[in-house]
Amino acid sequence: MADQSIVSALILGLIEGLTEFIPVSSTGHILLAGHFLGFKSPGNTFAVLIQLGAILAILSVYAAKLLRIAFALPSSPEARRFVISVLIAFLPAAVIGALAHDFIKTVLFETPMLICIVLIVGGVILYVIDRLPLQPRYTDAMKYPPSLAFKIGLCQCLAMIPGTSRSGATIAGALLMGTDKRSAAEFSFFLAMPTMVGAFALDLYKNRDALSSDDLLVIGVGFIAAFIAGLFVVRSLLDFVSRRGFTLFAIWRIVVGTLGLIALLIWG
């Protein structure tokens, strides 16, 4: 059973790393895969805790840029405005996530049918947005005004419904508000850092008494897998969406959601 859990954790960790930063909902994929693998974790905390691997992946890729921003803070108004914009965008999810944490984990995370439906609906919305003849006004994530950042942060709150996708909600919202695809994806990367760290810390605190040493081993395996897969995605995603857009991810969501629905209706 322990070996089976480790194999499941490895699979789910790879899924987390491959899907966290693309608009397909990593949490939705992990919860559905865990459902069909028969994988359970205390308080459904595995899906959040292995995000640490994805967090470290994006931090390692953006380490040089983050250091440049940090060193520029005392002298650069642009650097200060960017950091403030990211924190403003993070604030809505921080407040709502803390208030609704128990409902999200005990109700929404336990409803595979809802996840499949949201995957399909979100895929259709993303496909339509990707096809709209939008004229971008903002092409540099570092120069997004705080007001735009706050609105993107409100869009991120939709991702508390599993299957929505944090990156999908922020990118789709940003595109509709006048950004180009590359900068929308990059701002989503930066917004992911405080959001995922906050979610990780809150979940670890809430479930600190429910985790055992065996759980930590399984989470560690998922963490390593998520880190390796996340490195690959972060390094390649911006160039991909600049050339191809988000249609592939929209189709993927619809296919996965439809197959999930079929599987749930057949096997439960």
TrEMBL record:
Query: What is the protein's membrane topology class?
Result: Multi-pass membrane protein
Set out the biological process GO terms recorded for this chain's protein: cell wall organization; peptidoglycan biosynthetic process; regulation of cell shape; response to antibiotic
Q: Please provide, in alphabetical order, the Gene Ontology terms of the cellular component aspect for this entry.
A: plasma membrane
Going by the UniProt record, its keywords in alphabetical order are:
Antibiotic resistance, Cell membrane, Cell shape, Cell wall biogenesis/degradation, Hydrolase, Membrane, Peptidoglycan synthesis, Transmembrane, Transmembrane helix
Q: Which reaction does it catalyse?
A: di-trans,octa-cis-undecaprenyl diphosphate + H2O = di-trans,octa-cis-undecaprenyl phosphate + phosphate + H(+)
Q: What is its EC number?
A: 3.6.1.27
Its Gene Ontology molecular function terms?
Answer: undecaprenyl-diphosphatase activity
Role according to the record: Catalyzes the dephosphorylation of undecaprenyl diphosphate (UPP). Confers resistance to bacitracin.
Listed name of the protein? Undecaprenyl-diphosphatase
Q: What's the source species for this entry?
A: Shinella zoogloeoides
Q: Per UniProt, what is the name of the gene that codes for the protein in this document?
A: uppP
